[in-house]
Amino acid sequence: MKGILTFILGMVPLLLPAQQSLTLEECLSLAEKNYPLGRQKVLLEQQYQSEVNVLEMQKLPKLDLNAQSTYQSEVTRIPIDLPNTTIQPPNKDQYRATLDVNQLIYNGGNIAANARLKEAELKTRQQEVEVTIYQVKERVNGTFFNVLLLQEQEKLLDSKMKLLQERFNEGVSAVKNGMALPSSTQLLQAEILLLEQQKVHLKYERKKALESLSSLIFKEINLKDTLVKPEILLSSNNPLNRPELKLFEYKEYQLELSKDLIDKEKSPSVMGFAQAGYGNPGLNMLDNSFQDFYMVGLKFNWRLFDWGKAQEKKHSVEALKQVVATERETFVLNNEIQLQEALEDISKYKEILQHDASIVNLREAVIASKTSQFQNGIITSSAYIIDLNKLYDAKINQKLTELQWVMSQARYQLIKGDF
């Protein structure tokens, strides 16, 4: 029986959900990998391949089967009579069935130009997906640090709870020995209950934030899991690496290919054709009988004048290129402003942290003195709690500033495109 109990107790840890640690880099990577919009890149690739296949099919011969039966009110007649000759006019009812074959021989590279444009459109749309996913990373970053702050606050409350529990136990002992009044322990007990209440609030706030983070990275996270505070090395010398910049490049390249296609549309085209048929009459209109026939030939087409239509299209494309250029310029300018603001935040929080450290050190010195005074009955529990709260308020502010400092560094990296 004892062996069975030992086995069951040994299995309990295996049945419980494993505790895991998650870094900011892992969360960002999971969001990029699992975000549903990412699947659009594959779908866009499939669409592009289908469109290119359709373009390539223009190089294949086109076969058309045609048939018609007509009755007309009048037919061509020869208005003169020839001696010893009778020419019968065509029948008013006529029948024809043909198989027509058309084969493109040359069209100035129009198909290839269209295919290149389709490829450029694919890259542009796929890069738009990348831009959207990168914006999701900003949400992941904010949610990650929100959870991290709640996690650190819980740790501080646990530490504060431990100290209060020690003072409470000492107070209970003092009351038993007649060295303190029961009211001193009651006040400590009330403060402990208040901390329990705050812990419940923080637990559910962290649970809610974890659920949001879990939804963004598509990975199950529970309250036992721990987020690791990131250590970020700023790379201020690296060039801007935002996905938006590549999107602007693809847009400009796509517009340049559009101009090339406009030129190709003005090129001459050559097509071969063949027709085989059976009808009454055939090619000989003076033979009123069913005949088979065929015809082969070449077609040449070249639009010599389009009233400036191609030129206007090029002007439109150039205007769009200027729009893209201004969008790029605006993005770079705004990005530089955001980077400068992030650097100012980094410097600000770093300086505030130095003051926070001094405040916490002073508060710890005060509470050390107050602890001794409380233990010796010199001060009341109320006075001790006031200074203890001030110490932990200072520690919470210090932790908040520390996380804001790290978050501003992460934000700088995100703005620059290094995540």
Question: Can you tell me about this structure?
Answer:
It is found in: Cell outer membrane. The protein is an alpha+beta fold and 419 residues long. It has one domain: Up-down Bundle (Outer membrane efflux proteins (OEP)), CATH 1.20.1600. The chain is 65% helix and 12% strand. It has eight helices and six strands, in the order αβααββααβαββαα. It has helices spanning 2-15, 24-34, 40-56, 110-176, 182-217, 243-265, 309-375, 381-416, and strands at 21-22, 62-71, 93-106, 226-227, 269-280, 291-301. The strands form two sheets. It has a four-stranded antiparallel beta sheet with strand order 2-3-5-6, with no helix packed on it. A two-stranded parallel ribbon has the order 1-4. The protein is rod-shaped, with a radius of gyration of 41 Å. The protein starts with a helix and ends with a helix.
Secondary structure blueprint with pairings:
Blueprint: H1 2-15, E1 21-22, H2 24-34, H3 40-56, E2 62-71, E3 93-106, H4 110-176, H5 182-217, E4 226-227, H6 243-265, E5 269-280, E6 291-301, H7 309-375, H8 381-416
Parallel strand pairs: 1-4
Antiparallel strand pairs: 2-3, 3-5, 5-6
* Biggest sheet descriptor: 4 strands, antiparallel
Gross CATH architecture: Up-down Bundle
Give the neighbour order of strands across the main sheet. Answer: 2-3-5-6
Q: Percent helix among the residues?
A: 55-70%
How confident overall, as mean pLDDT?
A: 88
SSE series? HEHHEEHHEHEEHH
Task: Report the CATH superfamily.
Answer: Outer membrane efflux proteins (OEP)
Strand content: 5-15%
InterPro entries: OMP_efflux, TolC-like
Protein name: Transporter
Subcellular location: Cell outer membrane
Pfam family, one: OEP
